[in-house]
């Protein structure tokens, strides 16, 4: 629990009952989920593979990966979110193993046991993001892939991700993000290299407020994903 912010856990716990409401505060996650899922599967071909979803929340991505045939384990430290994730399995019929365990603890328990590891929109919510990266690297098998998504730190990301998304467009609840915790791609790439991961792709995700759609592309100035491979 040392690498967890109690305030952040409580923030998501208060919203846990809304995880699967596509018109709630989690609407952006529902809308970008197909893009993330396609990106992960295109680079890792997850069908039949053991996949770990770190910071799984209510299980939106976890269930989607299970739907593609992956053997998914989802971990989180927010009790209420995990309860919602487990309950939703009764409705969806998907097979996902959910556990309340810190990623560092699981890395000591099951090193090299996963073909792929995903950690989406979590690094900017923990005290030691580099520690999470290192733990993810330990959990993936040699030759396996690790995927991270987070927010860049620059004036444009402050304008779009905080002022725009939280205060103008109301896409997210106010206070969802702390700009000081945003992470530059160069910083994340360095943490990956330090952990023995080779970055082989960096892709941006953009939001068009005119047609209210998300898309993947080369613009990493706000949201971005990094794909790595363990040596």
Automatic annotation (TrEMBL):
UniProt catalytic activity: a 3-(all-trans-polyprenyl)benzene-1,2-diol + S-adenosyl-L-methionine = a 2-methoxy-6-(all-trans-polyprenyl)phenol + S-adenosyl-L-homocysteine + H(+); a 3-demethylubiquinol + S-adenosyl-L-methionine = a ubiquinol + S-adenosyl-L-homocysteine + H(+)
GO biological process: methylation
EC id: 2.1.1.222, 2.1.1.64
Pfam families attached to this UniProt entry: Methyltransf_23 (PF13489)
Residues reported to bind S-adenosyl-L-methionine: 36, 55, 76, 120
Keyword Methyltransferase appears in the UniProt entry: yes
InterPro entries, A to Z: SAM-dependent_MTases_sf, UbiG_MeTrfase
GO MF annotation, one: polyprenyldihydroxybenzoate methyltransferase activity
Family of the protein in this entry: Belongs to the methyltransferase superfamily. UbiG/COQ3 family.
Protein name: Ubiquinone biosynthesis O-methyltransferase
Organism: Sideroxyarcus emersonii
């Amino acid at each position: 629990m040392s690498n967890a912010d109690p305030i952040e856990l409580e923030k998501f716990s208060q919203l846990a009952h809304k995880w699967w409401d596509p018109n709630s505060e989690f609407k952006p996650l529902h809308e970008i989920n197909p893009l993330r899922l396609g990106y992960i599967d295109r680079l890792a071909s997850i069908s039949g593979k053991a996949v770990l979803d770190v910071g799984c929340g209510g299980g939106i991505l976890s269930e989607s990966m299970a739907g593609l045939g992956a053997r998914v384990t989802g971990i989180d430290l927010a009790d209420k979110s995990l309860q919602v994730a487990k309950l939703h399995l009764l409705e969806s019929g998907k097979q996902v193993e959910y556990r309340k365990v810190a990623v560092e603890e699981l890395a000591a328990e099951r090193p090299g046991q996963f073909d792929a590891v995903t950690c989406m929109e979590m690094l900017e919510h923990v005290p030691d993001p580099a520690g999470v990266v290192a733990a993810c690297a330990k959990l993936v098998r040699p030759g396996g892939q690790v995927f991270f998504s987070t927010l860049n730190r620059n004036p444009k990301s402050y304008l779009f991700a905080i002022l725009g998304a939280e205060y103008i467009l109301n896409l997210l609840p106010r206070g969802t993000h702390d700009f000081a915790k945003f992470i530059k791609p160069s910083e994340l790439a360095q943490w990956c290299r330090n952990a023995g991961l080779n970055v082989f792709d960096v892709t941006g995700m953009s939001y068009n407020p005119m047609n209210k759609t998300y898309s993947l592309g080369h613009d990493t100035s706000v949201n971005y994903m990094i794909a790595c491979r363990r040596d």
